[in-house]
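PROTEIN DESIGN WORKSHEET
SECTION A - STRUCTURE
LENGTH: 388
TOKENS:
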């Protein structure tokens, strides 16, 4: 009798709205340093939620890679993660994730500031290096499959036919034959066959974290002499604190410039916070993040309190969000991976998986073999005509 009464009471309470589940807001992080920052962000989120009279249970979830976080969100064991453009496509196409807010790097109206420039940087003293003369050089990349560090430069080299497409239709194979040695963090998880792609940072072959990862890491790789060129974003040199006059940007036409404004590879979409498509609490997540940006973003100058776009106090850079972010912005109508990335960048990604011209196969057929093929084709044509 008591059990029945208890069950009946629970049903009544649930129906009357007295029983409810607190929405979970679980952020997927990719390193111990991100986890530390995420736990401090929890306190800030709780304060913002209270101001907005929202009820949310924020927590931090460890992920082993960007794709691991995507799978966790798809499986409903996490809710949010900030991703680079290359990962945004994978998240949207393969795991049904959608962007809800993006990073703005210029503090402009709407989505005008939600983009950045991908650049190729060299030391000024490396006078013999241009974009058209990178073959055989050593290179530093932000990470395998990353936008400014991999997708744009490799896609551009392939599109301009400065780099040959490998027969395997794999851009990693193409790059491994193009550069003598490279540092491409986490490349072993993307392409295990070319050891020279992480020869300059063997301790980072299968991880996205480390001293040569990310924008600052790729630039450090080049500064340390591990690579001739670094593929980064346009603000990286300035953010490093180094003497900018000692570095040059490579232009796709083969010239060099001291200014990235005159010499960049491509304008690319900003990083975005991704979540599961159709998530019940997406609107709530978006509102909290936009208010978090307003309260704890650039306007929050007290270093003893949480700062959303500062990572140095946690011993890293670009943790959770890029440090160059000025504010978070609503993605608005660009609320799918395709709309956020745009056709130009998607074409770059397609270039990475394109194959050599189909005529390339005939180049490998020797003259006797070619003669046999032609005779066979001619015989087939004659037989067809005779049958008519």
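SECTION B - SEQUENCE
RESIDUE ASSIGNMENT:
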């Amino acid at each position: 009798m008591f059990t029945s009464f208890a069950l009946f009471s629970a049903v009544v309470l649930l129906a009357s709205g007295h029983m409810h589940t607190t929405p979970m807001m679980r952020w997927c992080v990719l390193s111990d340093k991100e986890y530390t920052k995420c736990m401090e962000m929890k306190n800030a989120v709780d304060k913002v939620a209270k101001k907005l009279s929202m009820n949310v249970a924020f927590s931090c979830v460890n992920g082993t890679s960007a794709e691991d976080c995507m799978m966790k969100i798809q499986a409903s064991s996490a809710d949010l993660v900030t991703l680079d453009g290359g990962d945004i496509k994978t998240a949207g196409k393969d795991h049904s994730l959608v962007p809800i807010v993006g990073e703005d790097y210029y503090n402009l109206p709407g989505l005008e500031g939600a983009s950045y420039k991908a650049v190729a940087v060299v030391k000024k003293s490396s006078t013999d290096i241009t974009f058209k003369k990178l073959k055989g050089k050593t290179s530093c990349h932000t990470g395998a499959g990353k936008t400014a560090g991999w997708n744009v430069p490799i896609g551009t080299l392939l599109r301009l036919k400065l780099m040959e497409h490998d027969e395997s239709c794999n851009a990693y194979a193409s790059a491994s034959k193009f550069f003598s040695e490279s540092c491409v963090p986490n490349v072993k998880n993307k392409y295990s066959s070319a050891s020279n792609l992480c020869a300059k940072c063997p301790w980072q072959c299968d991880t996205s974290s480390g001293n040569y990862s990310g924008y600052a890491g790729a630039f450090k790789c080049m500064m340390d002499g591990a690579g001739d060129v670094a593929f980064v974003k346009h603000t990286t040199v300035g953010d490093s604190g180094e003497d900018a006059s000692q570095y040059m940007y490579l232009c796709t036409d083969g010239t060099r410039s001291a200014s990235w404004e005159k010499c960049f590879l491509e304008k690319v979409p900003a990083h975005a916070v991704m979540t599961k498509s159709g998530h019940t609490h997406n609107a709530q997540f978006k509102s909290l993040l936009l208010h978090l940006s307003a309260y704890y973003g650039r306007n929050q100058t007290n270093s003893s309190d949480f700062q959303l776009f500062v990572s140095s106090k946690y011993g890293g850079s670009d943790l959770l969000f890029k440090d160059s972010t000025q504010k978070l912005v609503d993605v608005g109508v660009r609320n799918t991976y395709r709309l956020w990335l745009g056709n130009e960048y998607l074409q770059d990604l397609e270039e990475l998986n394109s194959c050599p011209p189909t005529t390339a196969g005939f180049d490998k057929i020797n003259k006797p073999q070619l003669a046999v093929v032609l005779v066979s084709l001619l015989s087939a044509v004659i037989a067809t005509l005779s049958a008519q």
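SECTION C - NOTES
The radius of gyration is 25 Å.
Confidence is low (pLDDT under 50) at residues 5-19, 359-365.
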